[in-house]
Amino acid sequence: MSLPRTPEPKPEDPYQEAIEYQSMDHETVNRQFVIDLLTRPTGPRLIDLGCGPAGIPIELCSQKESVEILAIDEEPEMLDLAKREIDAAGYLERIILCQGDAHDLDWLEDATADTVISNSLIHHLASPEKGFETAVRLTKTRGRIFIRDLARPDTVDEIENLVQTYCKQESVRAKQLFRQSLHAALNLTEVREICGGLGITSNHVQMSSDRHWTVDWEKTID
To answer: What is the pTM assigned to this prediction?
Structure first.
């Protein structure tokens, strides 16, 4: 029997948690996300749901000159960090920050993005299906959705092995954040079930590493 999903606890100090998250080594994961994204066309207008400190929008702008990104995050503390990083990288004109909750982005018009991307947002959501619904709604017909997140392992031992493998040099708090994220993540079967209800077939939902699943899909319906 697989582990049940355990939602993450609310942070006691959101700013300190944002700092802790930013201090973790995400460079390799962010770069691989962008490399995989750019294996197929993205169009010029992108929306990033759950941008965090903007590591992926910055990496994307550095690799592709023609893109503009609306980078959305619910946490003002993350957006503060993101603004500093974007400013330092020189991309303030190409990355627009916006505060918003992926559960409630009805104020954004339908079909506004050539591509909607998201990395490690879904496991934070109380209603993960709403995150997928929002991504589909915001994507133009013949646009693209590229979503990646952690996959929940079947056992506590597997979680601990991943924590030791990928957070060995991180702080005790960082290890706990990663552990909580793995417990809160969806497994591949759950992701495929949600996506199937939105017309995204299972061949577009695949494991992409030992700890990530990826949805890569072209929207062919309104």
So the answer is: 0.96
Structural domain spans, the chain: 14-152+187-218
Query: Taking phi first (over 0 means left), then psi (-120 to 50 degrees means alpha), and beta for anything else, what does residue 57 get?
Result: alpha
Helix, strand counts (H, E) of the chain: 8, 7
Amino acid identity of residue 64, one-letter, is K
Q: What is the C-alpha separation between 77 and 39, in angstroms, rounded?
A: 32
Look at residue 188 in the predicted model and tell me its pLDDT.
98
Indicate the Cα dihedral angle 111, 45, 78, 102, nearest 10°: 10
Give the relative orientation of helices 14-23 and 172-184 as an angle to the nearest 10 degrees.
Answer: 100
What stretches in the chain show pLDDT beneath 50?
none
Q: Does domain 14-152+187-218 have CATH number 3.90.550.10?
A: no
